[in-house]
Design a protein that fits this description.
183 residues; alpha/beta; Rossmann fold; 7-stranded mixed beta sheet; 25% strand; binds S-adenosylmethionine; Methyltransferase domain-containing protein; transferase; Methyltransf_25; SAM-dependent_MTases_sf; methyltransferase activity
Length: 183
């Protein structure tokens, strides 16, 4: 297995890792597809894990963009330190502490790989509330999941929620794109 340590971390703490392997290139590309490259962006990443999404974001976005990533697993935090990119700040902190580190209404995109279905309801509500607070009015929340069970919850926090799907991942995944604005 390419990322054997990912599998090992999943076995140690499946409830927080939420998957036994890192996301496929096809899923990652679909998740970061909406990010424009022509202007600097302020991005928050939630649950970067081994950094597959982080690298795709950094490869795609404008050179003056900033990415702040929140990851609770210390093994993944250590791996993320190997990404040498001045645009990236990795915080060894839970996403539920987002507003301790990020100013309100300053973020263009929140990109989340968090296993929402496995996170206790109160904690995920805190994370979604704080994501809503840090996003600019025209910002977007991007999230992939393996089931649609949190669609209703996302609708409580965002005015527009659209869903796409990819078979090219194990397991196949849904990708949400959520906006605060109604247009
Ligand atoms: C499904 S893995 C995604 C990893 C990688 N982004 C990918 O797509 O393969 C979920 C990640 O979220 C992290 N995580 C879970 N709960 C978290 C929380 N409350 N705050 C920050 N990270 C969390 C886990 O440690 C894990 O690295």
């Amino acid at each position: 297995m390419k990322n054997w340590y990912f599998f090992r971390e999943a076995m140690k703490s499946f409830r927080t890792t939420g998957s036994i392997t890192s996301s496929s290139k096809a899923l990652v590309n679909k998740l970061v597809e909406p990010l424009p490259a022509h202007r600097p962006l302020v991005i928050v990443e939630l649950g970067p894990g081994d950094g597959c999404v982080t690298r795709a974001i950094l490869d795609k976005v404008h050179p003056e963009s900033k990415v702040t990533a929140f990851e609770i697993n210390p093994v993944f935090v250590e791996k993320l330190a190997s990404i040498k990119d001045e645009r990236l700040r990795v915080l060894p902190t839970g996403a539920e502490r987002l507003t301790d580190y990020v100013e309100p209404a300053t973020v263009d995109y929140v990109v989340s790989s968090l296993p929402l279905s496995m996170i206790p309801k109160g904690v995920k509500e805190t994370i979604l509330k704080q994501s809503q607070l840090v996003l600019r009015p025209d910002g977007r929340y991007l999230q992939f999941q393996y089931a649609l069970q949190d669609y209703g919850l996302l609708k409580d926090y965002f005015n527009r929620v659209s869903v796409s799907f990819t078979m090219a991942n194990l397991p196949p995944a849904f990708i949400y794109s959520c906006s605060l604005s109604i247009v």
